[in-house]
């Protein structure tokens, strides 16, 4: 029998309150899925100035941690009522910017202080010392910003069980030893079997060493991070803990990313009314001032513009792509060098390329609905969500065989074509030549509308909901 568990979900971003990437999507949708399964879930996150919500925010309590008076506020996730506790400390969080960078894109100089305080408060809440009259059975932490929570909880008597989910090993929260000292953290944690990493403080290591269970967001990434190529020097720690490490593929919020009901797109559709998808392509071409042409293959890409995402491979392919009849639309922001080079291409080829630098939720949905093909040539990808959204929107993804991309896209091969499992195009090596081969494969198949439609239907009919994965998390919680 399944007894209701109390779960404290610790995260640095939650959609729709604040989002920089996939972590926010998961932090909004997994707790919702767990709540729908009857679990008692509360999210805890910092009270950033940039949080946007339609729900009320109310004061709950004030606690003192490390000589700081911190308020705990309560709100709910719009639309589904999951409770969110906001860690309110204006001296740290009441500034314009996002969770990691200021309004000019500069990383917060006091990142360590901000997230160490956040972790300490999460520990107080987890130990029911915050006047909230609620003690979790499970504290589920996510990424380095919450890494000190399992570490600090390991020092407590009669503590809740801890789960630490790695969404991205590339971000570790590493700071100098002097920061550790100034943070006033317990000396017992400072050793190579603790949060010390080559004489530096590693928040991530706090999660990897001390959590009762470690998960990552796809089974393939769980294996990859145990190798030197993907482990960033922590592969040894992970291999050592491999019996406590597993991969659970992310689900998606099927209400928010649903082509049948999406209010961000101009025409809703399903796998039985695929012809209607075209209206979104037309709207996208009009909105981005590209020639309106229903027959030309339209490639889309939405991403943080960072090395992880293989943007350099796209830049290398663009000259050859331009020799084919196609259009390419990109929405993203990040590395200024990439932004500039992409802009140059768009300026030289305004009839074929459109680059939008920035963050635009509505446009992201329209690109998913209006494109024919979605590009995601990541060098590594813990899970990836856009390739899943793409399949749901009948937009065939081209992905590199890594991490969650390898686990969620089925390559188009004679066998997968004939048994109707193919959902996209997968290539192996992280180089422009193999990406270009995959692009050419997609262009050939685009010329066979009947086959193309079958691929779209294959992808759209797959189950991407949290159903299976939320149960996997529950099984994990129940083992603790
Ligand atoms: P990551 O978390 O590594 O950035 P994911 O594929 O897991 O990659 O998730 C990215 C999420 O962020 C998706 O929901 C995607 O649509 C969204 N996103 C990324 N860049 C932008 C942007 N410029 N505008 C709108 N949404 C974006
Ligand atoms: C990270 C990863 C991405 C994953 C997301 C949500 O940002 O880069 O692959 O989908 O977290 O788990």
Written description of the protein model:
It is built from 19 helices and 18 strands. It is α/β, with parallel strands linked by helices and 480 residues long. It has 2 domains: 260 residues, Rossmann fold; 187 residues, Rossmann fold, CATH 3.40.50.2000. A 9-stranded mixed beta sheet has the order 3-4-5-2-1-6-7-11-12, with helices on both faces. The protein has a 6-stranded parallel beta sheet with strand order 15-14-13-16-17-18, with helices on both faces. Helix 11 runs parallel beside helix 12. The longest helix is centred in the N-terminal third of the chain and has 16 residues. 49% of the residues are buried. The mean pLDDT is 97. The protein binds adenosine-5'-diphosphate and alpha-D-glucopyranose. The site of adenosine-5'-diphosphate has 18 residues, from helix 1, strand 13, strand 14 and helix 13.
Notable characteristics:
6-stranded parallel β-sheet, 36% helix, globular, alpha/beta, binds adenosine-5'-diphosphate, 480 residues, Rossmann fold, binds alpha-D-glucopyranose, 9-stranded mixed β-sheet
Helix tally equals 19
Strand order, largest beta sheet = 3-4-5-2-1-6-7-11-12
Q: Tell me, briefly, the overall form.
A: globular
Bound molecule kinds, no repeats: adenosine-5'-diphosphate, alpha-D-glucopyranose
The CATH C-level name of the largest domain is: Alpha Beta
> Might you state the CATH topology name of the largest domain?
Rossmann fold
Query: In terms of structural class, how would the helical and strand content be classed?
Result: alpha/beta
Residue share in helices? 25-40%
Average of per-residue pLDDT values: 97
* Main β sheet profile: 9 strands, mixed
Q: Give the beta-strand count.
A: 18
* Span between termini: 15 Å
* Low-pLDDT residue spans: none
Rg calculated over all Cα atoms: 23 Å
CATH level-four homologous superfamily name of the largest domain:
Glycogen Phosphorylase B
